[in-house]
Hints:
Layout: H1 10-20, H2 26-34, H3 38-46, E1 64-69, E2 75-79, H4 91-103, E3 110-114, H5 127-132
Parallel strand pairs: 2-3
Antiparallel strand pairs: 1-2
Helix pairs in contact: 2-3
Amino acid sequence: xxxxxxxxxxxxxxLLESLQNQKxxxxxxxxxxxxxxxxxxxxxxxxxxxxxxxxxxIWDLGLIYTLSTSDANDIDIHMTLTAPTCPIAEAIPVEVxxxxxxxxxxxxxxxxxxxxxxxxxxxxxxxxxxxILDMW
Length: 136
């Protein structure tokens, strides 16, 4: 269920606006459309969500700890953030759910749970993310 959330400062408002106004590129839309199966489509959608403070998507950042899909196209995600003090911590999982519903017409139920254990660390990033962020 998509929920509303509250923000306490201008930085949070700015980050929220940035998150919600991320536009999908033609390449991202094509990647979703051309994915071979529902799980791959789901990953392609997750790759469209960027942490507004970091120029890398949440999949390549390693923020998705578990992704389960069912034969009924239900999705269960356990994810984290780079820091629990993120001013829009509540908004990112909501945006994930919103994007999945918007771009996966055949989706069943969606559960996105924000967890903090284990704590995120740089080693969880993909090689592509490390290259983009110059964190080798």
